[in-house]
């Protein structure tokens, strides 16, 4: 069996000095993915008229607070929101371009659909 290629060796970093940051990045990535899924579900429910105005307001505020907390947690661990958008190779990036954070390389090209409109 041959030795692992340079690209494969770069994917697995086991540096004890960065294990906490790497774990925080993984956890925050999963939380951001779930936040985006919740946001899409909320927009879908708003578009269908399933929510009252009060519920829409509450969901919107909750999602904004969660976004702020995510940014604070990233700052605390020396990360940017764009760092959470993992490159999945030929599949593209993990996080949705429609909700990709500012400065993320996953922005949609001009004129292309980027998912449901924000409210």
Automatic annotation (TrEMBL):
<dbReference type="InterPro" id="IPR007805">
    <property type="entry name" value="GvpK"/>
</dbReference>
<feature type="compositionally biased region" description="Low complexity">
    <location>
        <begin position="91"/>
        <end position="113"/>
    </location>
</feature>
<protein>
    <submittedName>
        <fullName>Gas vesicle protein K</fullName>
    </submittedName>
</protein>
<keyword id="KW-0304">Gas vesicle</keyword>
<feature type="region of interest" description="Disordered">
    <location>
        <begin position="91"/>
        <end position="119"/>
    </location>
</feature>
<dbReference type="Pfam" id="PF05121">
    <property type="entry name" value="GvpK"/>
</dbReference>
<comment type="similarity">
    <text>Belongs to the gas vesicle GvpK family.</text>
</comment>
């Amino acid at each position: 069996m041959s030795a692992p290629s340079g690209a494969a060796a770069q994917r697995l970093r086991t540096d004890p000095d960065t294990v906490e940051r790497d774990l925080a990045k993984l956890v925050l990535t999963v939380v951001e993915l779930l936040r985006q899924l919740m946001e899409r579900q909320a927009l879908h429910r708003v578009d269908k008229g399933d929510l009252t105005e009060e519920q829409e307001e509450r969901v919107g505020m909750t999602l904004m607070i969660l976004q702020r907390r995510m940014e604070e947690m990233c700052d605390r661990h020396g990360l940017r929101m764009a760092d959470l958008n993992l490159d999945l190779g030929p599949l593209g990036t993990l996080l949705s371009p429609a909700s990709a954070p500012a400065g993320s390389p996953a922005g949609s090209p001009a004129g292309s659909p980027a998912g449901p409109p924000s409210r």
